[in-house]
């Protein structure tokens, strides 16, 4: 076992890649999408450093840390940065972390949060009372309401394990069909609490997030 651990953590991760085509923004949130790690990299989590131009100039950026579960170590993961000011430009960079240390920082990116009147997207709705779990999966039910959208949109179902106080996990995400209201999430751990969000993404990376849903899988 000790030999396996050394093999897993034989170097720091390579520089993470922020995928701008998969990232999105609303009036008070930016959802950063991180491309799958380089083959051979083992990542325990990410650290996101962000701030407004004024914060950057004063070296007063904030940091969000997100642990990485095994299920997202070989796939895209999403890190929402919440409680931002509307119509404000923010700068972001990300480092990957494992037991050997920190990777180089990602190429910095910046974007402006939106004015609420510029989003033009309906807020997705999860029907909590109809959603449920088994020991290894969850069924998330979304509203079937139909409203005219001014633009083409995509829907994503994000989920993550509930973490201990003071820590959080990055979100796994899969694209879901708008015409369906029943969505399955498999390969979950038994007797574990998870959070779920539905994200609608429109043109220019505009997005709206549903309210969070908490569900606990049953014991095996």
Automatic annotation (TrEMBL):
Q: Name one Pfam family in it.
A: fn3
Listed name of the protein: Fibronectin type-III domain-containing protein
Q: Which InterPro entries match?
A: FN3_dom, FN3_sf, Ig-like_fold
Segments forming domain Fibronectin type-III: 16-116, 123-220
Which residue windows are transmembrane per the record? none
Signal peptide range equals: none
